[in-house]
């Protein structure tokens, strides 16, 4: 007779595959991770973005069991990674920033060695084909280029059909074609039901791959949600050059918008931020009010534009600490 687990059990069928609650980590007196929480479901890719030193690698290393949480809890397939590494072996894998493969072996020998240690591994030909290294099978690992080395790391990580995959800047050093190839492999794993936690400095990578994302800064998650939620939360911007005959204090109040004046190349611009839920609808109303104000006073709105945010703008805002409050996930 079997009993169903009351919490997400080792089978990981129910609940998130990765769960992080109020995680804190310190190096001596320095608190690198300051209370972060997020979940990743099976078949979901979560991108952890952030400024240099934000705490992403520390978080991933904790999830991989290399560090015990200083406070808070982390669970991977329902297990505590730092205490239950054996139970997670083979079902959880990662591509770390520094790979540990042996340089003297050939690519094929390296894959075969990893296959010997795995349960139900993919065929060597299949993995080498997945990462586009089939033509390098007989080459010594030390003779691979940096980007090819990263692809071999990925091959080794996907070989055992992991349920959870940690990818710490997996495409650093890859040319654009290799990067796209990697995206294909990662997408395939997610489609097969793996939960993937990805860190990257390539925002396009997160835009392409992430079901949900978070942006970290100084140990905290500042913004999180789907890409649309993050961009909506940041809000749309209405901008125009401030006409010479309009003083800042004469600018109109617009519904649902806040105004600032930014100086670009010594020219002042009026910038209205229309944020929050259904920003597009509010931006429309704010724009209509602005046009009516300008018509009434015969003011010309030079270089008038209405634009939604890009992920890059949100990222830079987080780095500048001008981000709005986090959007609920
Ligand atoms: N072994 C260590 N000893 C002391 N401080 C550390 C150690 N490892 C990391 N740190 C510090 O902890 C903070 C978080 O580092 P972490 O590597 O987690 O950031 P990151 O977000 O991965 O950064 P990057 O984008 O630059 O890779 C940084 O300020 C870093 O200097």
UniProtKB/TrEMBL annotation:
Entries under SMART domains matching the protein: AAA
Keyword list, A-Z: Antibiotic resistance, ATP-binding, Nucleotide-binding, Transport
Entry's localization field: Cell membrane
A Pfam family hit: ABC_tran
Domain ABC transporter, first and last residues per copy: 18-243
PROSITE patterns in alphabetical order: ABC_TRANSPORTER_1 (PS00211), ABC_TRANSPORTER_2 (PS50893)
Example GO molecular function: ATP binding
InterPro entries from the UniProt entry: AAA+_ATPase, ABC_transporter-like_ATP-bd, ABC_transporter-like_CS, ABC_transporter_ATP-binding, P-loop_NTPase
Membrane topology of the entry: Peripheral membrane protein
Gene3D superfamilies in UniProt: P-loop containing nucleotide triphosphate hydrolases
Keyword presence, Transport: yes
PANTHER family from the UniProt entry: ABC TRANSPORTER ATP-BINDING PROTEIN
Name this polypeptide is given: ABC transporter ATP-binding protein
Source organism (scientific name): Marinactinospora rubrisoli
């Amino acid at each position: 007779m079997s009993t169903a687990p009351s919490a997400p059990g080792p089978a990981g069928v129910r609940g998130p595959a990765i769960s992080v609650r109020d995680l804190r980590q310190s190096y001596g007196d320095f608190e690198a991770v300051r209370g972060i929480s997020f979940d990743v479901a099976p078949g979901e890719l979560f991108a952890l973005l952030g400024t240099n030193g934000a705490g992403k690698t520390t978080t991933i290393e904790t999830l991989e069991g290399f560090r015990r949480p200083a406070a808070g809890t982390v669970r991977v397939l329902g297990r505590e990674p730092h205490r239950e590494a054996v139970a997670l072996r083979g079902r959880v894998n990662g591509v770390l920033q520094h790979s540990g493969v042996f340089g003297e072996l050939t690519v094929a020998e390296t894959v075969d060695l990893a296959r010997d240690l795995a349960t139900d591994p993919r065929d060597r030909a299949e993995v080498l084909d997945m990462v586009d290294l089939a033509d390098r099978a007989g080459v010594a690992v030390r003779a691979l280029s940096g980007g090819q080395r990263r692809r071999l790391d990925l091959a080794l990580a996907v070989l055992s059909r992991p349920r959870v995959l940690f990818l710490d800047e997996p495409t650093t050093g890859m040319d654009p074609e290799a990067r796209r190839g990697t995206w294909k492999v990662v997408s395939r794993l997610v489609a097969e039901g793996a939960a993937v936690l990805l860190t990257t400095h390539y925002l396009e990578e997160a835009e392409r791959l992430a079901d949900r994302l978070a942006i970290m800064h100084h140990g905290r998650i500042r913004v999180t949600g789907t890409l649309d939620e993050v961009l909506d939360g940041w809000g749309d911007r209405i901008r125009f050059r401030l006409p010479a005959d309009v003083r800042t204090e004469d600018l109109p109040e617009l519904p649902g918008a806040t105004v600032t004046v930014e100086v670009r190349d010594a020219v002042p611009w009026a910038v209205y931020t229309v944020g929050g839920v259904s920003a597009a609808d509010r931006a429309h109303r704010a724009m209509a009010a602005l046009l009516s104000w300008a018509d009434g006073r015969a003011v010309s709105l030079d270089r008038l534009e209405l634009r939604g945010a890009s992920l890059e703008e949100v990222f830079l805002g987080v780095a500048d600490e001008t981000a709005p409050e986090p959007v609920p996930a």
